[in-house]
């Protein structure tokens, strides 16, 4: 309905994540992915990294010939960001990434370019299963060491006047030593993967 105002990106998710991290005892600073890609910020100087992607994903230009000139816009993990993330993960420090298209964006360049898939498998320890994984936003913990197994969580999947909707979350599977941390309650697809 064109007359009804619905919520979009409230642009306060960095503050929300920061408040949660501070409650957990971390000090917090924030920066853009561009600052990391341009080597203005060295991730390895931090004890914890929280990468918030939201609904960020590769978006081709209307005139595709411009992609070869200027690159595809809004990639979740452009090659220049993968390199510092890889170096950081190799330190063994905690790395947390959230977003709807973590897997599908990395797998979107197949079969021509497998570097995104390799990054997902080798660094993030996950593989992409499917997009649009759920219709409801109910999630159940798998590993009791991650969260109490009886404590379910949920996220909003329908646009409404109060919050940002996650309309098409990916399903992920653990690989190369990764472990399933959360599952979507409606179909048991993987909602979160982690590794030590």
Summarize it.
The radius of gyration is 17 Å and the shape is globular. It is built from six helices and eight strands.
- What does the average pLDDT come to? 87
- Note the overall shape: globular
Distance between the termini: 47 Å
Annotation, overall tally of beta strands: 8
- How many helical stretches? 6
Contiguous uncertain segments of 5+ residues: none
Major sheet attributes: 4 strands, antiparallel
Binned strand content: 15-25%
Strand order of the largest sheet: 5-4-7-8
Helix/strand/pairing category: alpha+beta
- Helical content stands at 10-25%
How do the SSEs run, as a string of H and E? HHEHHEHHEEEEEE
CA-based gyration radius: 17 Å
Give me the oligomer status.
Answer: single chain
What would your notes on this structure say?
- The chain is an alpha+beta fold and 196 residues long.
- It is 24% helix and 19% strand.
- It has six helices and eight strands.
- It has helices at residues 13-23, 33-37, 65-70, 79-89, 102-107, 115-122; strands spanning 49-54, 95-99, 126-130, 138-141, 153-154, 171-174, 179-184, 190-194.
- The strands form three sheets. It has a four-stranded antiparallel β-sheet with strand order 5-4-7-8, with no helix packed on it. Strands 1-2 form a two-stranded parallel ribbon.
- The longest helix is centred in the first third of the chain and has 11 residues, at 13-23.
